[in-house]
Amino acid sequence: MKKVLIADDEQEIIELLRLYFEKDYYEVFGADDGFSALDVLKDNTIDIAIIDIMMPNMDGYALIKKIREKYKIPVIVMSAKSEISDKILGLELGADDYITKPCDPLEVLARVKAQLRRCLEFDNSEEEIVETITIGELKLYTDSCTLYKGSRQVPITSTEYKLLLLLMGNPKKVFTKKQIFECIWNEPFYGDDNTIMVHISKLRDKIEEDSKNPLYLKTIRGLGYKFEYKK
């Protein structure tokens, strides 16, 4: 049984989602602020977190930062903050998906299933993938889902790991935004909502010496992205 953390200061939302998730055989843990959510994560093996932004004591942005310091679970933001800047900030901090309130509980459930399905697919494919992918100074360890640049470990989210596994595992191959989105998020790609661009930008900040002039993660104008190493 998969365990879902729902962090939201509106108890009615937690209980509504609980009805849908428990009917689908998920175990639900509720928290009404960031500190309570961290306690849940500490005491339980949570598989995925759904986080509201506007919570008392510790807001959702601060909670995402704390989660990314220690956990690799998928994180979905569910917030009434609908501006594109809010979505970009949530994704930049390490969220894997962003849902704007009000939302249908069935959509939330479907997005949770999609995130968990992607995690399972990557876990099940590890035996078919070489244990270490090395390009330049970068080493991606598929057994531990960790990235190193030289001797320094680079902290990455689960979505960033999936992006690196796709791109580093197929060096010099150009992937369109549609191919990347449908492979990583396992959902149809209907248009450009900046999601991929935000994750690519965040990865560049982590792996490139100069994110404006990348040596690894290249943009192929009008086509998409590819991974290679050229000085």
UniProtKB/TrEMBL annotation:
Residues annotated to bind DNA: 130-229
Domain of life (superkingdom): Bacteria
One Pfam short name: Trans_reg_C
Residues modified to 4-aspartylphosphate: D52
Sequence ranges assigned to domain Response regulatory in this UniProt record: 3-116
Coiled coil (UniProt feature): none
UniProt GO molecular function: phosphorelay response regulator activity; transcription cis-regulatory region binding
Keyword Transcription regulation on entry: yes
Entry keyword set: DNA-binding, Phosphoprotein, Transcription, Transcription regulation, Two-component regulatory system
InterPro entries documented for this protein: CheY-like_superfamily, OmpR/PhoB-type_DNA-bd, Sig_transdc_resp-reg_C-effctor, Sig_transdc_resp-reg_receiver, WalR-like, WH-like_DNA-bd_sf
Domain OmpR/PhoB-type: 130-229
GO biological process: regulation of DNA-templated transcription
Gene Ontology cellular component list: cytosol; protein-DNA complex
PANTHER family noted in UniProt: REGULATOR OF RPOS, RESPONSE REGULATOR SAER
Function: May play the central regulatory role in sporulation. It may be an element of the effector pathway responsible for the activation of sporulation genes in response to nutritional stress. Spo0A may act in concert with spo0H (a sigma factor) to control the expression of some genes that are critical to the sporulation process.
Protein name: Stage 0 sporulation protein A homolog
Organism: Clostridium carboxidivorans P7
